[in-house]
Amino acid sequence: MRPVVEALFRSIPAGVGSRRKDLKLPVAELKKVLKKGVQWTLEQGYGSEQDRDHIEAHGCIPGADPQHMSDKALDRGRAQLGTLGSGNHFVEVGYVDEVFDPNAAAAMGLFKDQMTVLIHTGSRGLGHQVCDDYIKIMMRASRKYGIELADRQLCCAPMDSREGREYLSAMACAANFAFVNRQMITHWVRDAFEQVFQLGPRDLQLGLVYDVCHNMAKMETHEVDGKKKRLCVHRKGATRAFPPGHPEVPGRYQKVGQPVLIPGDMGRASYVLVGTEQGYGETFGSTCHGAGRLMSRRQAKKTAKGRDIAGELEDKGIIVRGASRSTLVEEIPEAYKDVNDVVDVVHGAGIAKKVVRLKPLGVIKG
Prior knowledge:
Elements: H1 2-11, H2 27-36, H3 38-43, H4 49-53, H5 71-77, E1 90-99, H6 102-107, E2 115-120, H7 124-144, H8 162-197, H9 201-204, E3 214-224, E4 227-240, E5 259-262, E6 270-275, H10 277-283, E7 286-288, H11 297-303, H12 309-315, E8 319-322, H13 325-330, H14 339-348, E9 352-365
Parallel strand pairs: 8-9
Antiparallel strand pairs: 1-2, 1-9, 3-4, 4-7, 5-6, 6-9
Helix pairs in contact: 1-8, 2-8, 5-7, 7-8
């Protein structure tokens, strides 16, 4: 496992402000990324049509227009495709520890003791800048449209206003950047595995199970008071969980439901679930996108003072590499709720159904 983790750490830049020296795009090319999403990666020879079939919205949110983004946002994104970033973003190598639903697991190509790779990252500095830019715009818009705010962070504008339409367009750009970013990291994960194991793609079979957004607002049709309505569904700290038979679920998963990915922490476990009809009706097809923190980063640092976090995890059989010691300290397992408890609640409430549990073997953190 150590050579695998070291190869991943070399291949995928991680940490605050991490950038790629080998892939700094001209602004004109970056704008193509933002409009086309994962189609751009296919045109560049990264990934496959099968990958695209297993990505939410086929890796491209419609309505993306880079003219609604600032020059600063574009500049921040130019060299960040294929980078992990910081905070709780990670690449985790693990294995299928337990299978709860053999039928759904088989549809996803998952089986007990199989090695897996879980990638968690998003739109990097580009998306962060879109957020910063539009908070200022929305603060002005809230006053302009006479919207009273309980909290300034809830600043907003009507969806059919100029500000609302432009924000949705910029957010779609950021989402498309995130799809491409994860697809590029997937490419370098495959490359790292090929180097370490000296095997080709056909033997490794590192296929994509699913790539799904989190922290997004999307236009969707749902039933409200017995009537179908077009809604803007906000999934902040949440991810999509569509049921079997939904037209946006890939053909391979039509009978079992959309794969749902819920990571835990680097010392315990992560889960793959599927969406349900009950969850679709009760939560607009949404569930949590992680275990959730118990401690602030400052509390975690205080709790971990003087400890060798990497050593503690290695004693449990988990090899960890972080961009800095500070990152590992902030991300100690006890800083998070126990994902097993969280997923039991999600499963018990019928929001999504457990398929497999993944145990970590090696992790790289930003």
